[in-house]
Amino acid sequence: MKAGLTDEQSVRKTRSQKRKKRKRGEDDTDQNAASQAAAQREADRRARDRTLNRHQQEARDQAAREKAARALVVDNEVPHDGDDRFQFEHNGRIRPININAEQRKALASGQLAIARTRGRYRLIPGTLVERLRADAPFLLAWSADEAAPQSDTEADYPDHPVPDDLIW
Prior knowledge:
Elements: H1 8-24, H2 29-75, E1 84-90, E2 93-99, H3 101-109, E3 112-117, E4 120-125, H4 129-135, E5 140-142, H5 152-156
Antiparallel strand pairs: 1-2, 3-4, 3-5
């Protein structure tokens, strides 16, 4: 009114119409559209929050499984300090570990595996391999079933094993 765009009579008429609509139960279309938009924004925010909470919970669960797997590796470590040097490939590099002859046979048969945690390679029982693969596969450094498959020539010559000096 101060700018001169409308007069007092028009303002009274508009207020009167709005009051009558509210009494009759008719909704103001602008108000209805605004409330629907606000409800939609609230529903979207809640859905986004649920998704974010689910992802955070999954990350916490994964971290707990990895921590438990690390503890499992450390608790079930098989002591190794032999004269034989067993070399295996891990992360594209050849890594050594000192073991004895019995442990070498156990590694070859899958009864033992090698895991890396806390900066060390550790011998672990082969029964833990599947659990480590499920919970924290990055801990598993080497296992017999991951190793390169044996060539067909070994199957062709069962009476002629590989000489000891060729085992690396």
